[in-house]
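1st attempt posting a full record on here, be nice pls
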Amino acid sequence: MPQMEIFQGRAVASGIAIGKICVYSAEGEGDVPHYSIDSDSVAFEKQRAGNAILRARDVMLAMVERASGSLEPHLAEIFHMHYAVLEEKWVLESVEAYIDEHLVNAEHAVVDVFQTFIDKYSSQIGHFADFAQDLNDIRDRILECFEDSSSSGFACPTGASSPVIIAAHALVPSLVLNVNPENVLAFVSMEGGVTTHATILARSLGVPIIFGIPVARYLHCGDQVIVDGSLGRVFVNPSTDVSSYYEEKARSLAAVRIKCESFANEPIITPSGRDLSLKINISFPEELVLAENVPHQGIGLLRTEFMMFHRDSPPSEHEIASQLRDVMNQVECDIDGNHRPVTVRTLDISSDKLPPYMELPHQINPDLGIRGARAVEYFPEIYHAQFKAFWRVNEPGRFRVLFPMVSDLADLMVFRSALDRAAAELESEGVEFHRQMTQGIMIETPSAALMIDQLLEYVDFVNIGSNDLNQYTLASTRGDAATEGRYHIFHPSIAKLIEMVARAGQSNSKEVCLCGEISYFEEFYPLILALGIESVSISVSKLKDIKCYLHGLDVMDEKGVESMLRKFYCLSLKDEVDGFFKAFYSNTLSA
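the predicted structure (as C-alpha cells):
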C-alpha cells in the first residue's frame, strides 16, 4: 500500500471530501511550442494568432451563454468580462507587435505577451492581483484554439463514473464552469485567492477549497485523497486510521449542518449571558456577495487599501466617499429595520503594502517604522482626504471609524487631531455632516493591551488584531516556518492579553471585537468565549461554519470558564496547546 502523504495548504472553503483525485492540466501549463521564424513567416504567424483569438471569442461566447443560463447574474458576469477582454484591440495588436519584434511563432507570442500583463497584476494586491488568474484563463483559451493544439478541453477519465476531487495548478473560472457540479467533491490547487472570480464560482458549489498544494509535483489522477477544508490539509493515500477518522467526521459534520439550518437566525449566547455579535471582515466590495443569506451583525473590519492601489495618484475625498457609500448601501438592515454598522479602518500601510505614489524613506526596521499614527504624520494630505470622506458618509449607528496600530494615548491623539482638522475644513466649506462619529482603535501591540483602561476612556470600542498582536508579543514574523513550528497561533501569552482587554471592555461597557486568524478556527471558540469575548469579526468564507459550530456548543457557567482558563494557562509548549484544542474540537463534533 502506498505511503500516506500530508500536505498543508490555505483553507478557503471548509468541509470534508473523500474520494479519488482528478488532475487538470491547462494548455498554458503544457508543452506550448516555442520557436524562431524568419521574416517571410511573420504574416502567416500573425494570421494564425488572429484566427486563434477569433475562435477563442466563439468559445467564450458559448461559455457566456451557458453561464447566463445556469448561474446567478453576478457569477455569469465573470464570463462576460472574459469575452470583453478577448474583444479588446490590444490583445491581437500586442501579439502581432511581439511577433514583428521578436520573430517567434504565434503561440510563443501569446504566452509572452500575456505573461507581461500577468506579472504586472500579480505584483499588486487584492483584486488587481486576482485579475492575473483571469488573464491566465483567457490566455489558455487562446492557446487551446490554435489549429494544432493537443488540448480537448476538460476531460477526466477518473471522474467519468463517480464524483472526484479536482486538482489544478491554478483554479480558473472556465475549469469551474466546465465541470459537472454533481461530480465535484472539492477543489485543490497551488495558486488561487479568496476573492478571485474562480473562487467565487467554486464557493457557489458548496465544496471544500484549498490553495497552496503542490499539485503538479505530488498528485496524480486516481490517487485516493482526503481534503480537510477546515484545517487546509490534503491526505494522499490516507491510512486506514485516518480514513476511519475522517469518514466519521464527515458524517458528524453533515448531521451538524442539517441541524444548523433550523437555527441559523438564533442568537449565540456567551458565558456572560449576552448574545455573541458575529461580524464580517471585508477587503474588497466584491466579497459582500459571499455573505448573502448568512446572517451577520455588520462589517467589523472594512479595509480601505483597495481604494488606494492600481492608480497613479491617491483618490480624492469624493472618490473615497462614493466607494464607502456603495459598500454601506450593500449592507442590509437587521430584521427590525436598523442599520448594521460598517467599521472602516483607516489606511493601514506597511513596507510590503504601499501604493506606488507613497514612498517611504529608508527604515532600519520597517515593521517597527512608519505605521499607524506615524504614517498619518508622514502622509498628511492622503489621510486628510480619507478623513474628510469619513465625515461626508458618517451616520450615527451606521458608520464607525477604526484607527490601526495604536500603541498608546499619544498615537490616538494623532488620529483624533487629524480627524478634527478634516471636520473643521468641511465646516469652513459649508458642508453639512453629522458631527458625532463612533471611534475605535485596533489593539495590536502588547503596549496597547497593557494600557487598555486608559485608552478606553477616549474611544467607543476596540478591535483586537490578533495577527499583529501575535507577531509583536512573540517577536516572530508571520509565515516564518521556524517560528510557526515553535509557537502556537493561540499562545497562552496572547490569550492573557486578549482576556485583559475583554475584561476591561466589560468593566467599561465598551465593545471588544476579536479579529484575525485566531477567530477563523472553530476549535478555538470555547477558549475565545471563556476569555470574555462577546464580538467577533471573521472572514466571509468562515462565517457559516463558525456559526454552525457555535450553535453546537454548550454555554459554560462561571466554574466551567475558570476551569478552562486554569488548565490553558498551565500550558507552555506548542504540542500541549495543540492537544488542548483538539480535545475540545473532537468532543464538540461527537456531541
